[in-house]
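TA notes, week 10

Several of you asked for a full example with nothing omitted. So below is the full record: structure tokens for the whole chain, then the designed sequence directly under it. When grading your own attempts, check the secondary structure regions first.
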């Protein structure tokens, strides 16, 4: 099982290949805001662990194992973004919050969040009810603030 750091690289490589058709060390470094030398070291490790095939100066490709994990990591990220959006987290907080929690949840927890997102999508009235609860709670909290 890849480490959280390895997951970040695999996810980013998967996204770059999906969006651009390729992933270069410089692209990965820019996307993850790390030095190219760090990317090279990680890419070599991912190659040794059979997540990708890396040839110096020729680029890299994900192995079937790497593609499968990359796809799953992107789906996890998208699911958590959807969940936070549904429950009313401010848009400017969503990306950073997902980055902070995605590596700390078990796949079982991710699956249960997926069930909840599916429920909300199938029953949008529940989203409206949740928003009413949130407004009521915010009003009650404001009433309790000292003058």
């Amino acid at each position: 099982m890849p480490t959280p750091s390895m997951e970040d690289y695999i996810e980013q490589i998967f996204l770059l290949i999906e969006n651009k058709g390729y992933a270069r060390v410089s692209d990965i470094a820019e996307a993850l805001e790390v030095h190219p030398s760090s990317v090279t070291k990680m890419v070599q490790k991912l190659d040794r662990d059979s997540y990708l095939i890396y040839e110096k100066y020729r680029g890299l490709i994900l192995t079937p194992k790497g593609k499968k994990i990359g796809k799953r990591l992107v789906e996890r990220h998208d699911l958590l973004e959807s969940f936070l959006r549904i429950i009313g987290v401010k848009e400017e907080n969503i990306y950073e919050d997902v980055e902070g929690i995605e590596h700390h949840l078990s796949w079982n927890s991710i699956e249960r969040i997926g069930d909840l997102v599916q429920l909300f999508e199938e029953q949008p009235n529940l989203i409206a009810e949740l928003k009413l609860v949130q407004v009521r709670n915010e009003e009650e909290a404001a009433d309790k603030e000292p003058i």
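The beta strands are 52-55, 59-62. Use that as a sanity check on your answer.
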